[in-house]
Design a protein that fits this description.
Largest sheet: 8 strands, parallel
CATH topology: TIM Barrel
CATH class: Alpha Beta
Number of helices: 12
Structural class: alpha/beta
Number of strands: 8
Radius of gyration: 18 Å
CATH architecture: Alpha-Beta Barrel
Strand content: 5-15%
Helix content: 40-55%
């Protein structure tokens, strides 16, 4: 497990009857790796994990692990209403062949540090798999402070990475000030990636990568190489799309962009509904303008082979 590079928070494909489309999930994962991504993260927020049953989650993990066949690591997001269920999912992820875990705070209940620390610790104790902590106070109302992250890092040697989605790039420098390179810090919001890399992030858990992987990988690599003129040219072009990752309907928007790009379907499970009206028109227009004005520095993603 190499915690670096662009790792998609992969969407979950559904058939017209809203059952899980395992063929498309497998092909999508393969295509993302073919376009330069370094690993796949399944069952995150963008993967609509909250709408999947426990059994569906496990089958998705098995599908992606089998599809990649060791070519790249598969990381399972671990989210649940209760700590015991999260622990069981972590064990199931290990049994399915996953290479790492991305640990979320408990759904619904926003505990204090003692409670959240216990939740994360129980998941880390459940398997020897390396763990990434997902900090997203905007979405989940739970904020893991740099000092708290450092406390976990001192206790668990296999706690190795943080997905920092506070949208505050100062968190990257704050974590590094406490821990140096002990933890791999990933940016978890698409429209802060260049700033996050400048602050010391070494990875990107990305959303729009589901539709535009080659462009995402190129942006990451240019920024990491310090080629800022080229990076900002690509970033300015990409930002109207990347900002879709930061709004409440980010799942519908990103899946719609996949559909517009010919690499997926916009279908989502309820309670979410497909975009309609002005929202749909605006999303399509953003994609149309981006497609028509691709900068020379952007290498298009290869066609999606179904």
């Amino acid at each position: 497990m190499n915690w670096t590079g662009v790792m998609p928070a992969m969407t979950t494909a559904f058939h017209s009857d809203f059952s899980v489309d395992h063929y498309m999930i497998a092909r999508h994962a393969q295509w993302l790796i073919e376009n330069g991504c370094t690993g796949i993260i399944c069952l995150g927020s963008l993967g609509e994990a909250a709408t999947l049953s426990f059994e569906e989650k496990v089958t998705v993990l098995k599908t992606v692990v089998n599809a990649l066949a060791g070519r790249a690591p598969v990381v399972s997001a671990i989210s649940a209403l209760s700590t015991p269920e999260a622990v069981e999912l972590a064990k199931a992820a290990q049994a399915a062949g996953c290479s790492g875990l991305m640990i979320l705070p408990p759904y619904v209940y926003k505990g204090d540090w003692r409670e959240n620390r216990t939740h994360v610790a129980e998941i880390l104790k459940a398997t020897p798999l390396p763990g990434m902590l997902y900090n997203n106070p905007i979405a989940y109302g739970t904020d893991f402070l740099p000092e708290q992250i450092a406390e976990l890092a001192r206790e668990f040697s296999h706690f190795v990475a943080v997905k920092e989605s506070s949208a505050d790039v100062r968190r990257v420098t704050a974590i590094r000030a406490l821990l140096g390179e002990r933890l791999a810090v990933f940016v978890g919001v698409d429209d802060a990636i260049v700033e996050g890399i400048a602050a010391g992030a070494v990875g990107w858990v990305a959303g729009l990568v589901n539709a535009l992987p080659r462009e995402s990988v190129d942006l990451f690599n240019l920024a990491r190489a310090g080629k800022m003129q080229e990076a900002f040219e690509l970033y300015r072009w990409f930002l109207p799309l990347l900002r879709m990752d930061t709004v409440p309907k980010f799942i519908q928007l990103i899946k719609q962009v996949q559909q517009e790009a010919g690499v997926g379907c916009a279908r989502v499970r309820t309670p979410r509904l497909d975009l309609i009206g002005n929202e749909l028109d605006e999303a399509r227009e953003v994609f149309r303008l981006a497609h028509a004005n691709r900068p020379s520095v952007a290498v298009p993603s290869t066609p999606f082979a179904r």
